[in-house]
Amino acid sequence: MTQTHQEGTEIVVAQPWKKPDLADQLDLKKLNDELHDLRLEAGLPSARTIRDRVGKDAQDYWIVNHQAVLDTFQKPDLPRWGRLEVIVHVLTELARQSDVEGEVDRFKGLWKQVVRETVIQASVHPPSDITGSAGDDAAFPSADSPEQDTEVPSGRDAEEPPTGTEAPTNAAQESAQFNYAHESLKGLILNAAQALWHDKDALRVFLGVVRRSEGFVRMADAAEEQRPANATFYGVKSREFEVDRSPARLELVTLHRRLDEHRLKHGWSFTDMEEQTGVSSDAWIHWYTHDELPERESLVAFSHMARLTQEDHVLLLGLWDAARDALDVQKHSASLPSSISFDEAWTMRAPAAPKLWALAGVGGDNLTAYGPDLAAGTAPAFVVAGPPKSGRSTALVNIARSLLATGTRLALATPKPSPLRELADQDGVAACFDQDDIEHDELAEALATASAEEPVVVVMDDAEVFGECAAQRVLRNLLKHGFDEGTALVLAGDEDKLGPSYSWLDKAKRAHRGLLLSPQERYAGDWIGLKTSDSVIGIPVTPGRGWLHLGDGKLLPVTVPR
Length: 562
Prior knowledge:
It is a single chain. This protein is an alpha/beta fold. The chain folds into three domains: 223 residues, no CATH class; 86 residues, 434 Repressor (Amino-terminal Domain) (Orthogonal Bundle), CATH 1.10.260.40; 218 residues, P-loop containing nucleotide triphosphate hydrolases (Rossmann fold, 3-Layer(aba) Sandwich), CATH 3.40.50. The protein is built from 19 helices and twelve strands. The chain is elongated. The termini are far apart.
């Protein structure tokens, strides 16, 4: 299978590359086969195309030269993780796969399996003749060495080794020599030298310590003569030295991708960006490698440098605003109390809260009780959604208790065992439906005495069970005329099972407000009228922590009383 595409004025015939013979290394063969398959899905890009997509470092060197790309696919040994990671990242983007980080994680799992198998084999059958070790000087080429792309940057493109030149090697021995902890230590040394570069006295002391280990002498000499690039593999995101993911992951990834598209389009290095924006190359590399939010003024300077259109300029700043908001939300979430009692939360409500105000959670800078006014809004409803064990029933109990405390009458619906049933004997509970169906006449009777002065609120747990109940018409009427008739609905359900196929349930969305508890799916936000980003979804289920939307377009992190 071949494909043809054009690079500049040169016509390139894309074709699969020859695979190495790995019949006796099954784990490495699986990794190599998956890598070749990923390149096929990406449209068989050339080695130079992959090299160009990876880009250059702050010193304008190729991060991975084209020969190193070919070696990764064709040599019968395990590639270093930093090189493999950036290649997989590029190929996944070219293949237009949505979960780039997930694909990188999958390959990291395959890579680690090969490392584990290599360690096991080395311990059972130690190599009899190893001519070098991970600690030899040869393992650490100097900064001006033309053959740097073991995992440090190669020389400029003109210095790349000629295609097809391969030193004789024993794949089994070379794999057995690999020491992952040693490579990590080498990277940490580079990081420290980079951080100490401006303090020459401290740098000299540090490198003096490094030189005491014979294997690191040449690295120390090179680091003292020329400033090393960061150990995050020279300007490209690498999670070999992992940092916590930013809570604004989606927004930041999108922002960085847009910046990098313009940078690659113009062929700018980070040094070029420093010269034209006045922002240091170190700052640009740091923001890129650590998924951090650049300064807004830096984006404005970049926009002028790239001469972006008004549309692209507004898009960049819009992405920046979205990322900043996500970071602020997460910061407030982290400052919330891990738990709080209902009685304590009740004292935090506003003194002049309306009669149909319901306590949903506690949040904000000054820890205030928040919740919906069921007598106002676009529909007389409020939705609590989340996965199992996220605390939906507890949130309903709080809402029910707060309504009972203000003299509001309730009709409870609990088709499954629920703490809500414990309120059935409380004064003010007009009815309690504990079966998997609600009869039309029974619900109509429970709501018959409702009025604007004496409202009745239906509080329903496991609402998806009632999707096709006999009282559907009564529930649809409540959602349509509840403000006039003095009725309202508070429902809770599993975010995966609350389906739009139930017409009356779908109408509850019109309230555009609700409480999301540990949401796992992006579409969960549809139930509360707000799109949810990656900074909100997918966090491990934590009972009592939620995201409240009161119809104002803002997502407020809250602690739900217990």
